[in-house]
Amino acid sequence: MNVVPIGPIHPILKEPLRIKLLVEGENVKGAEIDMGYVHRGIERIMEGKHYLKCIHLSERVCGICSYIHTQSFAECIENMCDIEVPEKAKYLRVITCELERIHSHLIAAAVYNLTIEHETLGIWMLNVRESIMDLLELITGNRVNMGFNVVGGVRLDLNKEILDKIHKKIDEFEEDVKNIIEVFETGPLIGMRSKHIGKIGYKEIMKTRAAGPVARASGIPESDWRIRHETYKALNFKPDWRNEGDNYARMMVRHDEVLTSVELIRRALEHYAESSGIVRNKAEIRATEGEWYNEAHRGEVYYKIAITDGGLIKRIIIRTPTVMNLEAYKYMIKDCPTIADAVATYTSIDPCVSCTERTIQLKDLNTGKLSDYKI
Question: Nearest-5° angle of CA 110, CA 112, CA 117?
């Protein structure tokens, strides 16, 4: 058995990590993943700082899904300290979060298509994504790190001109993206490179605690934390899911979620129009601790925060979904006939290395020996 190293610097990797594929000829038999190239210690940096500073740091956990981290940070403290969020702010959060989910899924789809050498479809995905990025900039003032969420609500309200533009652009985007998804569904090259490749079943998903579209592509719709979120309940949200558990299913779940996000934005705009008042309440902080779960674009994101009376962060723990999804990857690659398929399967889980980089060590309870975490 031979080892084929991929990374830490490789054209197909968006971020640095090392994948060691164990192969016999072209057949992939297993893999090891080494991490630690971009660890930034954000949790440690937050300790002792005021929560007003830390909410901006949380936005730097991930560059693609930056918004959901500030929302999770804010909602965690709001839940801990019983801070009421205005109705308008709740629906503005849904609108912005779902716009970011669309842009994240389109990046994931574009990278996957480029990996399987369908460059035209990959570029189309990035092209339609630009209209979503324009909307994020229109609403928040920025395209990536938006600084929109605050504890107690959001920073800015929308006027009629912005609302009209959102409606118009969403309608145009939906028509364009439906055409692109149809190409993916019917393309013979895509089917050959995606169907029955990288399969993972229900039992393996439950064993690894995989999250997000990875879990929902293997028949676990309840993995979507939006079904537990009060605002999404008011919008009658229903998760998208499939049973096949292969690369094709994982990508199609993301495509389905893009269209679902469009519909959620429309419903949120209707509820927003029926709401009145302010978009931000005063935050009164008390010494306490608590935890919060949200459905980030790659899956479950978890925040646990301990805070003082003065609003200083005593301790914070952030868990992002890729750490679980990478564990599921070792089961997927056993169904990869070639090295190229193993690489495509890796991109199908939409990994985010920078937001996964945490200090993780395993302790042997018998010997007390510490070892670095390896998947």
Answer: 95
